Amino acid sequence: MSCGDPHETECGEVLDHLYEFLDNEMPEGDCAKLRVHFEECSPCLKQYGLEQAIKALIKRSCGCDDTPTDLRGKVLARIDSIRAGQRSGGQVVVAVETTVEVHAEAAGPAPGSGGAAAAEPAGRAGAPVEAGAQAE
What we know:
Mean pLDDT: 73
Helix content: 40-55%
Structural class: mainly alpha
Low-confidence stretches: 104-136
Strand order of the largest sheet: 1-2
Distance between the termini: 8 Å
Number of strands: 2
Oligomer: single chain
Radius of gyration: 17 Å
Number of helices: 5
């Protein structure tokens, strides 16, 4: 995604690192670059607000559940497998299956969305996704 306007930090780079920014996992210098970009670019700011709202909803809805030990083990094993495939230069295919249940009374509007948050699905649930593939 790009708004079409020139920025010191490109929109694609900002969106690639959006979750690192939201999770406070970036060096302060990089965070400052993203903050400047959000001040200049309303489409990226809108995306930031949407992702921030989604993370807050998930935390509010699921924050108290412990991760089952077997699930944690499977996820870590899969991450190791993907990393090993990337190091060997081979193509890695990851099957992604997600289910999101949102209750209308629990979900609030995204900041600056006018009350309705609409999102295009990034792909069909369960469809194979190549590791490192760009999200649409």
